[in-house]
Amino acid sequence: MSGYYSSSSSGYPSYGASAGGGGGGSYNSSSYGASAGGGGGGHSGGSSYGGGSYGGSSGGGYGGGGSSYAGGSSSYGGGGRGGGYGGGSYGGGGGGGGGFGGGGDRMSNLGAGLRRIDWERELPNLPKFEKNFYAENAAVSARSESAIEAYRRHHQIAVVGTNVPRPIEAFDEASFPSYVLKEVEAVGFKAPTAIQAQGWPMALSGRDVVGVAETGSGKTLAYVLPSIVHINAQPLLQPGDGPIVLILAPTRELALQIQQECSKFGHSSKIKNTCLYGGVPRGPQMRVLEQGIEICIATPGRLIDMLECGKTNLRRVTYLVMDEADRMLDMGFEPQIRKIVDQIRPDRQTLMWSATWPKEVQALARDYLKDYIQVNVGSMELSASHNITQIVELCSDYDKRTKLIRLLEKISDDKTAKTIIFTGTKRVADEITRYLRQDGFAALAIHGDKKQQERDWVMQEFKAGKAPILIATDVAARGLDVRDIKLVINFDFPNNVEDYIHRIGRTGRAGASGTACTFFTPADAKHARQLVGILAEAKQDVPPQLEEYARMSGGGGGHPRYGGGGGGGRGFSSGQRFSPYGGGGYGGGRR
C-alpha cells in the first residue's frame, strides 16, 4: 500500500520520503511524496502529491530522511547550515481544501435553498428574551464628564450615537457576574483595553453596536464575555434548538481563534460551542450541532451548508456577531451574510466589528443594525501601530531572495523569535518555503490550497516555536493571533495599503514592540504615496527614493480608511535600493 490512501490510525500524514527514495507510507500515516530524483509520491483520494510542491526540487526537497508531518519529534530539512534542524524531508505539500467555508463557483448559489421567513408572522410565536444586563458601577457614575472625556481622549476612543454608556476603567466596574470575573482574573489581565473599556458597557446594555478598531486591540473579548452573560440569562436549549450566539468570521483561522476564547471563558458556565468552516469533512461538525450548542462560530459558506441540509437552524439566535466585517465583504461574502441574517429574528442584538469603516460596511450596518451606537478606537485615518518599527527596502524582484536570507540570518541567534513572511501568491509561498528549508531554516507555509489538517498542523508547529518562520498569503493576514511574533516581512507588497496595515499588525500586539520589513519594487509604485503617509504618521523613516517616487506619482488620493485611489507614475530603476541598516546588524535603530 506504499503511497496510497489507507485507514491507518495515525490521523496525520508524514511528509515524504527523502531524495532518491520512493513514495513510502500511506495517507493517515503516509508520505506526501518523494523529493525530486525519487520515485512516485503518495495518492490521496486520487490526487497525486508526488514529486512536486514541497518535495520537488532537485536538491532533494527540504532535506533527507523521513520526518513526521505531525508526529512526535519531527525534524526539519537538513543541509546547508551545520545540521541545525535535523534531517527531515517535508515532501510534497497538499492541495485542495481551499475556500473560506465553501468557495469556488458554488458561492453564488449558496443559500438558494433557504426558506425566506415572514418575521411579522413568526416573531410573536417566539419566546421573549433578555438582552440588557448592564448596571453602571457607582465608581463609573461618580466620575465627572471631564474625567470621562479625558479618559476617552487619552485612549483615542470616539463614540457615536445616543445614550452611549460611559467607559469603565477596571474589570470589576463592568457589572460582569462573578463567574466571568473569575475567568478574567485567572488569565491575569491587568486592565481592559480601550475597545473593551468602552465596548463592554455597550454590549451588556443590549444595544446594537459597531466597533471599529485595529487588529490586536482585544475586540474578541469585547463581544465574547458579554455573549456568555447573554447565554446564561436565556432559557436552556431544547432538543432541536440551534445556537443562541452566532459569530460570523471570514476565515477558518480567525474562527478557530475565536473558538479558543469562547472555550476558555465559557468553561465555568459549561457553555458548549462549535466551529464551522470548510475544507474538512462535514460529518463531525454535523454531529456536534445535533447535540446542541450555545455558541456557533462559523464562516458563511459552511454555515449555509448546514442550514440547507437541516442540521441546524437560527431560530434561537438572539446575539449575532459579525467579526472583521470589512474583510468578509472584501472576500465577497456579502450575499451569504445577508442570506444568513435574514434567517435570524429581527429583535436580536447585533454587534459588528471591523478594522476599517468603508461605505460597504456602513451600508450593511444600516440594513441590519437598529439604533446602533458606535465606538472607534484609534485614528479613523488608516494608520499602523506605533509599537512597530517599519522598514522599507527599495529593490528589484531579483534582489528579494538575497535580502530575505540576509535579514533572517541577522535574527537567527534569537531562537524564540517568530517571523511571518507574506507573499502575494500561493506559488511564491511554496517556492520561498522550499528555498529557505534547503538553506537550513525551519520554515513552513500556509495558504488556501493547503488541506485543513495540514494548516492546523503548520499553525501548531509555528505557535510552539518548532518552525519559527511562517510563510503566508493573505489568508492568514487577519485574525492570526500568535504571541511573540518579532518580525513581519512583506516579501511581496500587498494589493492595497489596508492589507499592509493588517499584515504588519501581526507584530507589535498588546503593547509589545515589533519590526516590519517591506520589499518595495517598481511594480508597487502605485502604493508609494499612501505608504509614505503611513510611515510619516507613525514617525518612521521614509526612504528618500520612496518619497521622490510618491511626489512623482499621480495617484493615492482619497481617504485611505474609506478606500482610495492608487495611481500611476514613473517607476524607479531596478537597481535602486535603500538599506535602512547602515553598516550595523539588524535592529540597530532607525536612521
UniProtKB/TrEMBL annotation:
It is found in: Nucleus. Keywords: ATP-binding, Helicase, Hydrolase, Nucleotide-binding, Nucleus. InterPro entries: DEAD/DEAH_box_helicase_dom, Helicase_ATP-bd, Helicase_C-like, P-loop_NTPase, RNA-helicase_DEAD-box_CS, RNA_helicase_DEAD_Q_motif. Its EC number is 3.6.4.13. Residues 553-572, 581-591 have a biased composition (Gly residues). Residues 403-550 form the Helicase C-terminal domain. It holds the Pfam family Helicase_C. One of its GO terms (molecular function) is hydrolase activity. GO terms for cellular component: nucleus. A motif (Q motif) lies at residues 169-197. The keyword Hydrolase applies. Residues 200-375 form the Helicase ATP-binding domain. Residues 549-591 are annotated as: Disordered. Residues 169-197 form the DEAD-box RNA helicase Q domain. Belongs to the DEAD box helicase family. This is RNA helicase. It comes from Geranomyces variabilis. The lineage of its organism: Eukaryota, Fungi, Fungi incertae sedis, Chytridiomycota, Chytridiomycota incertae sedis. The gene is DBP2_1.
